[in-house]
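Could someone model cobalamin with this protein?
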Amino acid sequence: MISEMLYTTYFEHLLKGRRAECARIVQSLLDQQIDIKKLYEDLFQKSLYEVGRLWETNRISVAREHLVTAMTEGLLNLVYPTLFLGKKINKKVVISCAANEFHQIGGKMAADIFEIHGWDSHFLGANTPLDQLLTFIDEVKPDLVGMSLSVYFNMPSLIEGIEAIRSAFGDLDIAVGGQALNWGGLDRIAKYSNTVCIRSMVELEDIFKSS
Ligand code: B12
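Reply:
Sure, complex below.
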């Protein structure tokens, strides 16, 4: 549980670029064995969304937004040792951002949650060229492909990706996540077989219940 007071303290340190203080807070939550989904949504995601609002309304600079993003990516590494403690279930997932999609933190978090649930997760990061994604899927032969989309203008690239996966790999399961889904496109994605939209960490749990 992350109290409002702890969140506010963390956020102030984050905006001021105080890496050590942020790391101490995250490490102490990990020491208390916080649910990683809560850490991701209620600390990292919440603070990055807030930073997005501050940036959008010109209250912080692009440089500060980059600082916060880089710090958060570093803090995610503190979680790394806890990712591999669970029992492996012999399932593989490949998670990638759509081509031209540069927001990679959400997809990385999703990949971590799969790993915690015993999957082998292969996270390809931002802006993966489609032909490279297809080649990688062919090599790894995953049980599921996750696609991340943050900005709505990249929807055509996501749809192109889904169609290419359908045509090369038949009915391979696909899960689409990311906040671009808040701006629409659910109907366009829903028409593809074996393709689901995941809107939250709670919805992601449904995949694990059925696996
Ligand atoms: C950091 C950041 C950047 C960085 C990203 C760097 C990086 N290493 O990732 C950089 C500087 C590259 C960037 C660029 C741009 N950005 Co930006 N960015 C952000 C910011 C501040 C944080 C993003 C983030 O990490 N969020 C936190 C993560 C954890 O949240 P999430 O992605 O939603 O992920 C969660 C779920 O969605 C889900 N999920 C995500 N992916 C997946 C995948 C699967 C398979 C599953 C199951 C779940 C899942 O799980 C996660 C955990 O719950 C956001 C603000 C915001 N609201 O997020 C703006 C934001 C996304 N950016 C925005 C914009 C406009 C841009 C630019 C167009 C700016 C510009 N003019 O150049 C470019 C676009 C670049 C591109 N082509 O993609 C807008 C988008 C608005 C819109 N309506 O589409 C936002 C919302 C800011 C704003 N308020 O206006 N940005």
